[in-house]
């Protein structure tokens, strides 16, 4: 789920930080710059692990700050494809089930990757697994908000989320409203840099309470069978229920 990424960057240390040791100042600046940020094709940055090497610091003309080329290792969140993780249901929509890990929210289980057959309940705003029963009926199992859910990572999507830049010539044409331009800008800003697509359409995956309940029922059935076997054994020992000619 977590990995170490070796990165290289030139770190700028402002003059007001010169009272700190160089390594401490660089550590603070790296974490300020990268913590909780997504790096394209790398993952979600969590925390600095260690500094591998430092080159000589230089001061550029017209800038009183020091600039140091640094090679360092950073802890990133990027689960491998097919990894199994446990999160909580954040909400449900027609798009699928949205899951959170607490520190990462952009996980989606699309309808095609849910247990089959499933339907979206408009009243409850939740996906429902129509669990088939032996008598041919079905039992509705709801995927409620806040429920712990176990899922398998099936795909990851990285998207470039750099600034959208100045308005295009199309948006500046006469007759184009400010609201239209604003909406277009908001659409660009809402792009998610890193998303995980997951699946639960296999045995043992899905809402944990489903399987806990099933395990409890199996245990109770096993206990009842055990009690019946013990009763039969006691009857045989006492000579009761034995076959007589």
TrEMBL record:
Residues 8-64 form the RNA polymerase Rpb7-like N-terminal domain. Residues 215-245 have a biased composition (Acidic residues). Residues 158-190, 208-245 are annotated as: Disordered. Residues 84-211 form the RNA polymerase III subunit Rpc25 domain. Gene3D superfamilies: Nucleic acid-binding proteins, RNA polymerase Rpb7-like, N-terminal domain. InterPro entries: NA-bd_OB-fold (IPR012340), RNA_pol_III_Rbc25 (IPR013238), RNA_pol_Rpb7-like_N_sf (IPR036898), Rpb7-like (IPR045113), Rpb7-like_N (IPR005576). Residues 175-190 have a biased composition (Low complexity). CDD domains: RNAP_III_Rpc25_N. Transmembrane segments: none annotated. GO terms for biological process: defense response to virus; innate immune response; transcription initiation at RNA polymerase III promoter. One of its GO terms (cellular component) is RNA polymerase III complex. It is found in: Nucleus. Its main location: nucleus. Keywords: Antiviral defense, DNA-directed RNA polymerase, Immunity, Innate immunity, Nucleus, Transcription. Component of the RNA polymerase III complex consisting of 17 subunits: a ten-subunit horseshoe-shaped catalytic core composed of POLR3A/RPC1, POLR3B/RPC2, POLR1C/RPAC1, POLR1D/RPAC2, POLR3K/RPC10, POLR2E/RPABC1, POLR2F/RPABC2, POLR2H/RPABC3, POLR2K/RPABC4 and POLR2L/RPABC5; a mobile stalk composed of two subunits POLR3H/RPC8 and CRCP/RPC9, protruding from the core and functioning primarily in transcription initiation; and additional subunits homologous to general transcription factors of the RNA polymerase II machinery, POLR3C/RPC3-POLR3F/RPC6-POLR3G/RPC7 heterotrimer required for transcription initiation and POLR3D/RPC4-POLR3E/RPC5 heterodimer involved in both transcription initiation and termination. Belongs to the eukaryotic RPB7/RPC8 RNA polymerase subunit family. PANTHER family: DNA-DIRECTED RNA POLYMERASE II, III, DNA-DIRECTED RNA POLYMERASE III SUBUNIT RPC8. DNA-dependent RNA polymerase catalyzes the transcription of DNA into RNA using the four ribonucleoside triphosphates as substrates. Specific peripheric component of RNA polymerase III (Pol III) which synthesizes small non-coding RNAs including 5S rRNA, snRNAs, tRNAs and miRNAs from at least 500 distinct genomic loci. With CRCP/RPC9 forms a mobile stalk that protrudes from Pol III core and functions primarily in transcription initiation. Pol III plays a key role in sensing and limiting infection by intracellular bacteria and DNA viruses. This is DNA-directed RNA polymerase III subunit RPC8. It comes from Musca domestica (House fly).
């Amino acid at each position: 789920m977590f990995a170490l990424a070796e990165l290289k960057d030139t770190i700028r240390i402002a003059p007001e930080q010169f009272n700190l040791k160089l390594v401490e100042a660089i550590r603070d600046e790296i974490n300020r710059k990268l913590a909780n940020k997504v790096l394209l094709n790398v993952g979600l940055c969590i925390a600095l692990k260690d500094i591998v090497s430092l080159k000589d610091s230089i001061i550029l003309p017209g800038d009183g700050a020091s600039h140091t080329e640094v090679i360092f290792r950073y802890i990133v969140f990027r689960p491998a494809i097919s990894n199994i993780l446990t999160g909580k249901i954040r909400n449900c929509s027609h798009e699928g089930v949205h899951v959170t890990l607490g520190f990462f929210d952009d996980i989606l289980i699309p309808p095609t990757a849910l247990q089959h057959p499933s339907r979206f309940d408009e009243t409850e705003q939740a996906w429902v697994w129509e669990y088939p029963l032996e008598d041919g009926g079905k039992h509705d199992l709801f995927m409620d908000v806040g429920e712990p859910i176990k899922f398998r990572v099936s795909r990851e999507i990285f998207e470039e989320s750099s600034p959208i830049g100045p308005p295009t010539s199309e948006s500046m044409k006469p007759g184009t409203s400010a609201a239209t331009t604003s909406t277009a800008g908001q659409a660009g800003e809402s792009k998610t840099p890193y998303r995980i697509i997951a699946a639960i359409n296999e045995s043992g995956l899905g809402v944990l309470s489903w399987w806990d309940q099933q395990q409890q029922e199996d245990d109770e059935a096993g206990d009842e069978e055990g009690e019946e076997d013990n009763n039969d054994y006691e009857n045989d020992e006492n000579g009761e229920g034995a076959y007589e000619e």
